[in-house]
């Protein structure tokens, strides 16, 4: 024998008489009349884009420093800044997969390598310009 998923319950409002003088309404398990849930519980999905389009990043999402890593790629220290770019992309991927600790760790490494690349690149550019100006005295 197979059990039914419907039952009868005494509910106020729209009821039908069952022959005994008491008001009952037949309902299915999934269709109980209940007050609507609070707005925060209506959907477990993402909120609308107007509610989440703020300038500040989400609280739980770590930074990946992708813009800094791309900027460091213009400096003449290519092995370091390419590795910084790779770490930044890995940080973004880890953050999208939900690994916040790994994303923070990889993001910090991307930031460190980007800063080192920018500083070393600036030193190399300044040394090159100063040596080229010193080597060619004005006549």
UniProtKB/TrEMBL annotation:
Keywords: Membrane, Transmembrane, Transmembrane helix. Residues 47-56 have a biased composition (Low complexity). The keyword Aminoacyl-tRNA synthetase does not apply. Residues 1-21, 38-57 are annotated as: Disordered. It is found in: Membrane. GO terms for cellular component: membrane. The keyword Lyase does not apply. The chain crosses the membrane at residues 65-89, 110-131. PANTHER family: NG5, TRAFFICKING REGULATOR OF GLUT4 1. Belongs to the CD225/Dispanin family. This is TUSC5 protein. It comes from Pomatorhinus ruficollis.
